[in-house]
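Appendix C: a fully annotated inverse folding record. The material below is reproduced so that readers can follow the format used throughout the book. The structure is listed first as tokens, followed by the designed sequence.
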């Protein structure tokens, strides 16, 4: 690698380092730290690069193996001076939220205003399906970078690992003590990260220009959201009601134990379980003189035999001479046919249960599966790659619907175990001084929505949707999160955002009229699709479809968005349990009832077939190059099973039938999924942008009004703001105003805002 890397560990070396900062307006910036906790760990150095191939690493601390502690590099004043000079420049970073937050925590210096671009998000904007690790990206782009990155990255990693282990540090998946590396290893490593970030930043800047994504990335959505919403959300964290969570942990354990006891009593009392346990014991400990069974048999029968020096009973002929009885004969002849079978089985079971790993428990899914599939003969819903029945959460949920004494309890037990681990224990184990710091990844999804460890917070359910024992815990989880003393939440969730966006994007007035009239989305489409008379989509009407024909409305949910997203007649037929022919009639009725929707679907397919990408209304791009390549080669014929059969036959001679089928099936899936993605992306991505742009606008309005408030959480179409109690009503009005009017669709959005003390109050 052509490089000019400088390691600065003393104040007298700082002149060239400061000169480099002054010389360039843009710098790639990175920190080295003692760990990943931005609130508790320490910055030990910073690296930066303003020119490709040249980088500096300024040492704040370095590890001293002799003293087994960090020792000072440059003085604190000098380090901070360099950091302040860097903060005056435009910065490129990789995963900037981490560096910004740990710098602020260590030095009270805010780098967010200096952040020109997060290069990881640049990559996501032009290559949303990618891997987002720095070194992996450098390897992918090594030809453009002019570097042998595969070799360099491997050597770098090996050198770092070897050095850290030599110095007594840990190198595990969950903990890599990189701060313990010697300076001659750490310095070049840190410089390389800054240098690579700059090089890769140049590459993706050109890509943004080529695809006319600069405005979307820098000004409209990606970076404004990152600087003004994402990083602040991760900085603030969310306050927890710890006493409530601790009580929930006690309560849920009582209910888990109760359910476990009930299941064990009912399940273990079945003939099938008895037969399974008996078979397992007999196979593991067959009745013979040698091994554990022989020793246990002697003990059980009370046969007076001497012991060997190792403590085992001696079963030699000499030891057995003069002894009588069926037990002695069985040992001598290694034949236990004349021994009472119940005695044999008792010994085998005692041996089996003496080993802890054999003791049955409800968390042993392989053992549960063995009994349920092999002995109870209940058919699995799916199979593992090895062909065995898959005993997973979905199957446990299915078991709960069967009329067996223990299955409902097992299903509820499983749900409580998940709630305890996923929410109660996680919040108790990972909080810091009563705050939970969630991650919000803008590169976590293709559509532009956040990938977050709080996206799956369960919504409260109505009585009857879950069994009471599960309902009471499901419905308190959101209440764990509180606004804090003197604070309130403004909780605002868009009403039916995706259907609104769908109607808008399709351009169909019939779909738009549903919302203009305030009618029910699913009922309107069902009535038009199935050409029904005498029923209404008006929720207030006596003949409202959802009231008089609930099952028809429910069935419509399967195709209202499914068909535009590419659901086939075969798939719809399976879902509704009707024939493919009947499903085809439904689909045709649907698209005939909303002609502009059909037109939009066709235009979307043409766009991706010809160009290999589709763009949302706001500007985000979904790259689907495989669709273009496959269309140029096959047209749309890949969707025809007869054409695919001919292709398989054509390539069987060269590839073999199995490989030919595998390749054709893969091409079919890539094409079908790509064409479908071209449609659903436009809707899902616009929905994501509407929420994102509202979050930006809300935080800007708070700042403009001088209100100490912020967007604290985003979950799907819901935004939660943390505001002062004294400003709650003012904030409620402005939040609703922004969310309903910040982005104008051809139909009005609705987002009623609620004032709440916790995340449960607004629901």
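Designed amino acids, in order:
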């Amino acid at each position: 690698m052509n490089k000019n890397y400088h390691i600065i560990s003393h104040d007298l070396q700082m002149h060239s380092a400061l000169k480099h900062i002054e010389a360039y307006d843009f710098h790639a910036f990175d920190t080295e730290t003692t760990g990943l906790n931005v609130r508790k760990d320490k910055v030990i150095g910073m690296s930066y690069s303003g020119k490709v191939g040249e980088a500096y690493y300024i040492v704040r601390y370095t590890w001293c193996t002799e003293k087994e502690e960090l020792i000072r590099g440059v003085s604190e004043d000098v380090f901070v001076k360099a950091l302040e000079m860097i903060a005056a420049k435009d910065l490129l970073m990789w995963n900037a939220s981490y560096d910004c937050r740990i710098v602020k925590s260590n030095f009270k210096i805010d780098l967010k205003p200096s952040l020109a671009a997060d290069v990881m998000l640049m990559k996501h904007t032009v290559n949303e399906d990618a891997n987002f690790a720095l070194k992996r990206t450098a390897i992918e782009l090594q030809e453009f970078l002019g570097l042998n990155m595969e070799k360099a990255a491997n050597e770098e990693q090996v050198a770092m690992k070897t050095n850290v282990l030599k110095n007594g540090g840990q190198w595990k998946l969950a903990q890599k003590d990189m701060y313990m590396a010697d300076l001659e290893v750490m310095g070049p490593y840190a410089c390389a990260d800054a240098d690579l970030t700059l090089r890769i930043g140049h590459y993706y800047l050109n890509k943004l220009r080529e695809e006319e994504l600069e405005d979307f990335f820098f000004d409209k959505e990606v970076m404004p959201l990152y600087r003004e919403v994402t990083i602040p959300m991760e900085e603030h964290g969310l306050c927890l009601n710890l006493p409530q969570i601790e009580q929930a942990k006690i309560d849920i354990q009582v209910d888990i134990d109760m359910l476990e006891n009930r299941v064990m009593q009912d399940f273990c009392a079945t003939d099938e379980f008895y037969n399974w346990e008996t078979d397992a014991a007999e196979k593991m400990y067959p009745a013979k003189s040698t091994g554990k069974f022989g020793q246990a048999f002697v003990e059980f029968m009370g046969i007076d035999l001497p012991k060997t020096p190792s403590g085992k009973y001696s079963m030699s002929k000499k030891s057995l001479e003069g002894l009588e009885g069926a037990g002695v004969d069985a040992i001598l002849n290694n034949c236990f046919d004349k021994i009472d079978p119940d005695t044999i089985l008792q010994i085998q079971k005692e041996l089996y249960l003496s080993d802890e790993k054999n003791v049955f428990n409800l968390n042993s899914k392989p053992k549960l599966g063995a009994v349920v599939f092999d002995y109870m003969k209940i058919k699995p819903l799916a199979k593992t790659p090895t062909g065995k029945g898959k005993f997973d959460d979905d199957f446990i949920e299915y078991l709960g619907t069967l009329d067996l004494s223990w299955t409902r309890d097992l299903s509820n037990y499983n749900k409580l175990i998940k709630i305890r681990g996923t929410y109660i224990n996680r919040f108790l184990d990972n909080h810091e001084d009563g705050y939970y710091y969630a991650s919000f990844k803008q590169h976590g999804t293709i559509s532009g929505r956040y990938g977050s460890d709080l996206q799956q917070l369960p919504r409260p359910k109505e009585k009857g949707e879950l069994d009471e024992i599960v309902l009471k815990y499901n419905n308190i989880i959101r209440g764990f999160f509180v606004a804090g003393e003197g604070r309130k939440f403004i909780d605002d969730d868009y009403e039916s955002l995706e259907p609104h966006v769908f109607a808008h994007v399709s351009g169909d007035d019939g779909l738009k009229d549903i919302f203009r009239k305030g009618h029910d989305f699913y009922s309107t489409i069902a009535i038009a699709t199935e050409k029904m008379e005498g029923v209404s989509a008006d929720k207030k009407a006596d003949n409202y479809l959802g009231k008089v024909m609930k099952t028809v409305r429910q069935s419509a949910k399967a195709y209202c968005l499914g068909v535009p997203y590419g659901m086939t007649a075969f798939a719809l037929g399976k879902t509704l349990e009707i024939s493919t022919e009947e499903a085809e009639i439904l689909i045709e009725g649907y698209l005939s009832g909303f002609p502009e929707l059909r037109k939009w679907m066709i235009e979307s397919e043409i766009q991706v077939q010809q160009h290999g990408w589709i763009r949302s209304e706001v500007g985000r791009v979904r790259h689907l190059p495989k669709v273009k390549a496959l269309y140029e080669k096959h047209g749309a014929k890949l969707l025809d099973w007869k054409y695919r059969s001919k292709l398989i036959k054509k390539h069987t001679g060269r590839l073999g039938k199995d490989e030919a089928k595998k390749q054709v099936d893969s091409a079919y899936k890539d094409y079908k999924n790509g064409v479908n993605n071209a449609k659903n992306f436009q809707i899902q991505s616009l929905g994501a942008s509407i929420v994102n742009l509202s979050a930006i606008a809300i935080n800007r309005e708070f700042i403009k009004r001088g209100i100490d408030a912020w967007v604290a959480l985003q979950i799907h179409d819901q935004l939660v703001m943390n505001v002062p109690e004294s400003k709650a009503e003012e904030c409620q009005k402005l939040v609703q105003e922004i969310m309903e009017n910040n982005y104008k669709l051809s139909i009005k959005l609705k987002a009623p805002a609620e004032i709440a003390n916790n995340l449960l109050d607004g629901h």
